[in-house]
Amino acid sequence: MDIPRIFNITESVHRIHNPMTADKLATLGAALRLEPGARVLDLGSGSGEMLCTWARDHGIVGTGVDLSRLFTEQAKRRAVELGVADKVEFIHADAAGHVSAEPVDVAACVGATWIAGGVGGCIELLSRSLRSGGIMLIGEPYWRQRPATDEIARGCLAHAVSDFLVLPELVASFGALGCDVVEMVLADQDGWDRYEAAKWLTMRRWLDANPDDELAGEVRAMLTSEPERYATYTRDYLGWGVFALMKR
Ligand code: SAH
């Protein structure tokens, strides 16, 4: 049980698997006014940077669930490195349907809402783990500018323009799902560069070390085309943010 191997290759060196930077994650942690001992659940926790740094900086305790064996191992190592292994645990599992045994203060899904079938399903899933008055975190893309055609949307690796909303629509959609938006931290294009451009050096080094791997052809093709695709489409068209929500 694991995510497709291509992601474990291209994002093997990432600490944060989305366009948020370490600064932005710290801004978000401060914005949420986390109390020491606050319980945080993170579905699709990746390499654990959010939980580990918030445990170090705010004394939260937390659980992360992720389907990537590699990322989960990296998260456990990061917890040891930051001296918070007694505060956070990382579980290698499918997070679809995962509900915590005890209600949590913050329930997050940052860049993996598809595990519950999209934003609506994700809010429903997170709310099952949340204490009354708790905060949900949803990390999600939106259009910085709406593409004129589905072809441009596909250039952003979406299926169609209808995959995402523009920011005012996304914010309004949370209201329509019965939630107050109580905070948000938005990624910027420098953050997109950190997420996307970091894959290129990782791919190049992996190719040099693994020329005969069965995925070498695919990775070679990606490395050849990704910088131009990203610069043409994703960087200009796609925004990304983490939205803090409370049930009305
Ligand atoms: N929240 C993390 C990771 C976001 S990337 C961060 O911000 O860094 C999306 C993550 O979802 C990846 O780590 C991937 O391994 C994980 N994932 C994909 N499908 C999943 C599933 N069904 N259950 C749990 N995690 C999943």
Please estimate the helix content: 40-55%
Q: What composes the largest sheet?
A: 7 strands, mixed
Structural class label: alpha/beta
- Work out the count of structural domains: 1
**What is the top-level CATH class?**
Alpha Beta
- Alpha-carbon distance between the termini? 37 Å
CATH overall fold name: Rossmann fold
CATH architecture assignment: 3-Layer(aba) Sandwich
Mean pLDDT: 98
CATH H level: which superfamily? Vaccinia Virus protein VP39
Strand content: 15-25%
Shape: globular
Order of helices and strands: HHEHEHEEHEHHEHHE
Radius of gyration: 18 Å
Which ligands occur here?
Answer: S-adenosyl-L-homocysteine
Total helical segments: 9
The counted number of beta strands is 7
Poorly predicted parts = none
Strand order of the largest sheet: 3-2-1-4-5-7-6
Describe it:
By secondary structure, this protein is α/β, with parallel strands linked by helices. The protein has helices at residues 5-10, 22-31, 49-58, 69-81, 119-127, 150-155, 167-176, 189-209, 216-237; strands at residues 39-43, 61-66, 88-92, 104-110, 130-143, 179-186, 238-247. The chain has a single domain (5-145, 161-188, 239-247), classed as Vaccinia Virus protein VP39 (Rossmann fold, 3-Layer(aba) Sandwich), CATH 3.40.50. Helix 2 crosses helix 3 (49-58) and helix 8 (189-209) packs antiparallel against helix 9 (216-237). The longest helix is centred in the last third of the chain and has 22 residues, at 216-237. The mean pLDDT is 98. Residues 3, 16-18, 44-46, 49, 65-68, 71, 94-96, 110-112, 115 line the site of S-adenosyl-L-homocysteine. S-adenosyl-L-homocysteine binds at residues 3, 16-18, 44-46, 49, 65-68, 71, 94-96, 110-112, 115.
